[in-house]
Design a protein that fits this description.
5-stranded parallel β-sheet; 282 residues; 7 helices; homodimer
């Protein structure tokens, strides 16, 4: 089955986009691992209609709303998006196809800013792995997204060390992959990164890949070569990225990180997709 | 007292703007006669957080939210806005002052489209009354906004006939003003309006003023000489009109007439006013 739209994210922006699309007569699918930023919000007082509500309560009301409109929601982690006539969304559990995709997966919280100033640091194995053929690589991360990036890098070099930076390893890796679970103490280098220090030891490297947490909108967009702006996904006035059919809204596109803004954009984004799908009927 | 901001409208856009401003530490005042378009909406299914809710219920929740933040709401009809160092808001009950004003009073529903194609038709006595010195005028309307426009026109000409177009007259007028309560049957003219037909009679006129219902954002903006775009109020990326300190958001500025969009704009508009007030501290 090819969905009219796959929406990545089940926070306010994602649910609103899906609700509008469904009511426009389309079949959306929502994929998200969790509710994103709102999961940890204890008190919301500035969302119209609620004098006071918690993030988890509001998220739950949103899910219920989608359920009542029979919008399917999959609790899966998205690992990669690719495009070949249609979009292919690869998750931890399967591959799904859609005519359009909406990145409504929140602001990027998966950056590793200590490394950002160095050359030789990448957030995308598919994009940059090739530059490190048979070189020594560090891969920072601990979950399934890290494992996905590792599987790409393993075809390029055998010399890879995984750094969890103090997090416990949740991905299952083959035993011959060295894993350092200590906190990272320092990153060395002049212009280019040269070594990582952790647990009192220094590991010389030629390059470093970051794959912390889930693949954020930011990292997914980077994989696809999407234009960015101030570390957010750049969109036009129709909430479309520079890749035809790939849309984004909510915190993922930056600006005011507010529920009100996110749902306003969700409604407008869905309306733009409605026009897009009508024009590209096939 | 000079308010930081007077917000005209107590629908989603107005309340959201006020809630954000209050939480930014400012003192907003809301003035509105009613809840606007939502008053008549029986079923809302596309507003995030509610599987199903009626317009009046949602409006009431919004009012409650403003009340709990001690934001004052006046149930008064706004007749005119003027600017002289500060903004002066004239209502049916008083005059209020503010550093900024937000037009969040919904889409204009007060147009009289049958007359729109003719020259000699105006929505603003203050703007255009002067052109009709000692001429024969028709004034279409029945409430206090019509009475307000009449008071302006009476200084210009004595030959004014009020047409309620079938509505019952709610404004109190002096007895020497002729009032036609019949439905308007036809508007005559070539390029220019020349006569109005009602109750089987034809009334020759030189010009016609429209003052139906409340003064909408559209008419208030016209009075101030604000730039319009497609019959909506034109704003820049900070939701400011071409008059410094006068902002607008929600249905009043056109586009998608949706609660989601309105509250997204309310949040962004308040944030822009926050910056504006900080810059113009005096």
């Amino acid at each position: 089955m090819i969905y009219d739209s796959i929406i990545i994210g089940k926070g306010p922006a994602g649910i609103t986009t899906a609700v509008y699309l469904k009511r426009y007569g389309y079949e959306p699918l929502i994929i998200a691992k969790d509710g994103g930023a709102l999961v940890h919000v204890k008190e919301i007082e500035n969302y119209y209609g609620f004098s006071k509500i918690t993030g988890p309560e509001l998220l739950e009301r949103g899910i219920k709303q989608a359920n009542e409109l029979q919008i399917p929601i999959l609790e899966e982690e998205v690992l990669e998006i690719s495009f070949e006539n249609v979009f292919f969304i690869t998750t931890t559990k399967g591959i799904y196809q859609a005519k359009t995709v909406v990145l409504a997966c929140g602001a990027s919280k998966n950056r590793y800013s200590k490394a950002d100033k160095f050359e030789g640091v990448s957030y995308c194995a598919t994009c940059d792995g090739f530059f490190y053929r048979k070189k020594r690589l560090a891969l920072i991360g601990s979950g399934s997204y890290m494992a996905h990036e590792l599987s790409v890098l393993e075809n390029i070099t055998k010399d890879i060390t995984v750094f969890t930076d103090g997090a416990s390893l949740t991905a299952e890796l083959s035993e011959d992959i060295p894993v350092v679970v200590d906190k990272i103490e320092a990153i060395h280098g002049e212009e280019r990164i040269t070594a990582i220090e952790a647990g009192g030891k220094t590991y010389p490297i030629d390059g470093c890949f970051i794959a912390i947490g889930n693949a954020s909108g930011f990292t997914l967009a980077k994989h696809l070569g999407i234009a960015l702006k101030n570390n957010s996904i750049a969109v036009d006035q129709n909430y479309m990225t520079n890749l035809e059919g790939l849309f984004a809204c909510g915190d993922a596109i930056g600006g005011l990180l507010q529920i009100s803004k996110a749902i306003g954009e969700g409604a407008s984004c869905a309306t733009a997709i409605f026009s897009y799908l009508k024009k590209h009927k096939s």
